[in-house]
Design goal:
Blueprint (H helix, E strand, L loop, with lengths): L3 E7 L3 E7 L5 E8 L6 H15 L5 E8 L2 E3 L4 E4 L12 H8 L5 E5 H9 L7 E6 L3 E7 L2 E2 L30 H4 L1 H12 L5 H9 L3 H25 L3 E5 L6 H14 L9 E4 L6 H11 L5
Helix pairs in contact: 1-2, 3-9, 5-6, 5-7, 6-7, 7-8
């Protein structure tokens, strides 16, 4: 069993582990509640226990982690987190998880960076990644490498734009996350109808013809398209990949997004080519495997 690689997705609700063989082929996966409000030590304890529930640490060649929050790529230290976590900021993930796994090498990236790594093909050189989930995250792959930027991280597309008065989780208003995240879809529907339901239920209502539900999804798709085309135009990127749980409602998002892309083409005259992520719920963990192996995915 030598030469196995583990990818760990540490999110606000769950921790997911995928184990792959030396060729990058998945052979096992398992998940558990992440314990996000229990603090950094407890989160790493759960992650380590989850890995070793699948494979002994001695069989691992390396571990990659896709972690929620702004991550210092050199050390894997969590710099900033959202309100889904308690005591996660300041956690040194590389050292802490490696120690719990008997010294196995660990590399950590922001979860959306890991997601994007897992979605790349060998021909990709410039790609924008967007993850629509509880929040909205982004990642940028330029000139064949992830762009990390400064201390607040590069690619945070969820916190750009001024699309209206809706409050964002960062404390400002009008950002893409205030309209296109799962939480924002549910919140805006509740404001319009008085019904407090999950985003998945809002999607069901929209598909059944509920006008209030259709409006929140149409706004989300339109603003997503505008944000993508502006980000790509700035960096000379013609391709974007979109994933995350909200894309389970892609049928509601795609048309208004494409209309916005066509209305705001790149300087080439063509719209950004947007593709739907293929990794599904395992995209971050599979990208973390690619990170650990330090090779481009095939």
């Amino acid at each position: 069993m030598n030469g196995l690689w583990a990818g760990v997705d540490i999110g606000g609700s769950k921790t997911l582990v995928v184990v792959c063989d030396g060729d990058g082929q998945e052979f096992a996966s398992v998940s558990v509640d992440s314990g996000a409000h229990l603090g950094g030590d407890a989160i790493l304890d759960r992650a380590a226990a989850l890995v070793t529930s699948v494979v002994p640490a001695s069989a691992l060649a390396g571990v990659g982690v896709g972690a929620a929050g702004v991550v210092e790529p050199e050390t894997g230290r969590i710099v900033v987190t959202g309100d889904s976590f308690t005591g996660w900021a300041g956690t040194a993930v590389n050292a802490g998880l490696s120690a719990r796994l008997g010294g196995v090498p660990v590399l950590t990236e922001n979860d959306v960076n890991a997601f994007l790594l897992g979605e790349l093909s060998t021909s990709d050189r410039h790609v924008l990644g967007v993850a629509l989930g509880t929040g909205v995250g982004g990642a940028v792959f330029v000139d064949g490498a992830l762009l990390h930027g400064g201390g607040t991280g590069a690619g945070e597309i969820g916190h750009v734009g001024d699309y209206g008065p809706a409050p964002c989780t960062c404390g400002q208003t009008g950002h893409l996350e205030a309209y296109a995240s799962g939480r924002s879809l549910a919140r805006r529907y509740a404001l319009a109808t008085g019904l407090e339901v999950r985003a998945e239920v809002v999607a069901e209502a929209a598909l059944a013809g509920d006008q209030a539900a259709l409006t929140v999804f149409t706004d989300a798709g339109r603003f997503l398209g505008e944000a993508i085309t502006h980000a790509c135009g700035l960096l000379g990127i013609a391709t974007a990949v979109v994933g995350g749980s909200v894309t389970n409602s892609w049928a509601l998002l795609e048309k208004p997004m494409q209309e916005a892309l066509l209305a705001h083409p790149l300087l080439s005259g063509s719209p950004v080519d947007v593709r739907l992520a293929r990794g599904g719920a395992k995209a971050v963990a599979l990208g973390a495997v690619a990170l650990a192996r330090s090779v481009r995915p095939e």
